[in-house]
Amino acid sequence: MSMRLTNTDSSTHRDGPMVIGSGLELLDQRAPGWSNSLKDHLDTSGLGLMSTDLEVLLENAPSAPVSSSPAIIVLPADGSDRFISQLMDTLSETLAAALVIVDENQTRIKHFMQAEGILCETSSITPQEASIILRTLAQRQPALHRLNTELRLSEITINGVQSEVSKLHEELQTAASIQREYLPVGTPEIDGVDLGIIYRPASYVSGDIYDITQLDEHRSAFFLADAVGHGVPAALMTMVISQGLRKMDGSGASAKVVEPEDALRRLNNTMAEHKGENARFATAMYAVYDKSTNEVTIAGAGHPPALVIRAESGTTEMVDSEGPLLGIFADVEFPQKTIKLNDGDVLVFYSDGFEVAFPNQSDDEHERRRPTQTYISRLSSAGNDSNKLNESIRFLEDNLDLQMGSLHQPDDITALFIAPSSKRSAAAEELVNSLRRIPESM
Description:
By secondary structure, the chain is of the alpha+beta class. The chain has 2 domains: 142 residues, Rossmann fold; 255 residues, 4-Layer Sandwich (Phosphatase 2c, domain 1). The protein is built from 11 helices and 17 strands. The strands form 4 sheets. A 5-stranded parallel sheet has the order 2-1-3-4-5, sandwiched between helices. A 5-stranded antiparallel sheet has the order 6-17-16-13-14, with helices on one face. Helix 2 crosses helix 6 and helix 9 runs antiparallel to helix 10.
């Protein structure tokens, strides 16, 4: 298929804005002089007219989008659907400014092209009308060039950002994996103690860390720390804390258990000594439990008070954290206290994420981020039955899942439930059932 403009050749080519024409001889056959009239109208607008074969135009379509010159393309009445589709794809891919003219009987093609955003008119169009359209297309091309350049730059930027986000995602996953290596695997088996654990990071990594260790034949240690802040900095701090906690002095037969007050004092001095210009600090609770006496010795560092749920009375006692935050001042004391755990009692350590874990259902978005006291009753209920500790904790986790906004947990949530595994009160079924009956509005 060879189509050339009539009465136009290379001698008409000139410097300056050009319109590329193809197939105009088909209009000249119907209306002699049509192409010359178009040329005259374009000249008055400062546009030249250059002929080319349609096949050459398609084959030499610019690789970069947005053709700089508008085109007027006249399609033959017998053009195949495949050829027309190829033309439409080329115009769309290159964002070329083109006016396509079809036979008056090809209204189907006209509507099809217009639906794809391609200017298309029938052969009844006049040279003056065509020149107005082509002049408008020529005027809009510089703006399209700029928009296309900005789009390409935006795509490059977005691709770069996506690449960095992917790298960050991988790094955070690796960080989370490394942090998990510093935590006990599952629920540890500690002789003489039943345990329950809730551990829910707010994001990839957590500012909470806990440790559970069997120290000797009778004693075991329980540690929970919360690095102030969120994200990676807080998570890195938890690993420093974990490595800085000394639970035993010496090794072998001569090893001695470090008292909680002394363990926190040493940890605090290490953190304060290496705090640098940007000091970071943490809260913590540390306890040593002796199963031979059912006594637990607790020391705290600015941490929320521990809860002791008494099986006999059903009451909840609070063991305050009397020491200061870790990592601020060196050589400070962390007073410890010793309490007796009776049969069926449960000791609970928890991070401050629980303070915002159970917002009031009627509060607005701002108020829902404020601490409430609901968590105390929820934690107490979960610790009410040491015989059914795992079941009670599952109910508590279900309640956490039901909270509005649980998909966007505002803070890390960690809790340790510690109960002597000696004989317990058998009359605990009603306490577990009471957990099921906790009103959702609490």
